[in-house]
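Support reply, case 0932

Customer input (verbatim):
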Amino acid sequence: MNSKEEQTNSEVTNLENESFIEQQNDPNYISEQIGDNKLDEKSIEIKDEYKFGWSSYSEITNGRFAMIGFLAILLIELCSKQSFLRWAGIL
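Our regenerated output:
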């Protein structure tokens, strides 16, 4: 690159930095990072509590146990080299 191109690139960078600083000094400017922090604080406040019936906690727990069971069936079939139903004596 020649010196003129380097100078224009540095001028553009300086202008971007100045506009960013002006944005931050504006009292009405809300940073995206501040919004992310508020979401993190809200997610910390939510507690996983067991509730009887159809709740998100129950659904997540049942889904995780279903995944573990499915993985166990796959491992049994891979290790025994026969179907799970035959291995269990159902067929």
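We compared this against your earlier run and they match. Two observations from our side: DSSP finds four helices and no strands in the chain. Residues 22 and 29 are 10 Å apart (CA to CA). Please reopen the case if you see a mismatch on your end.
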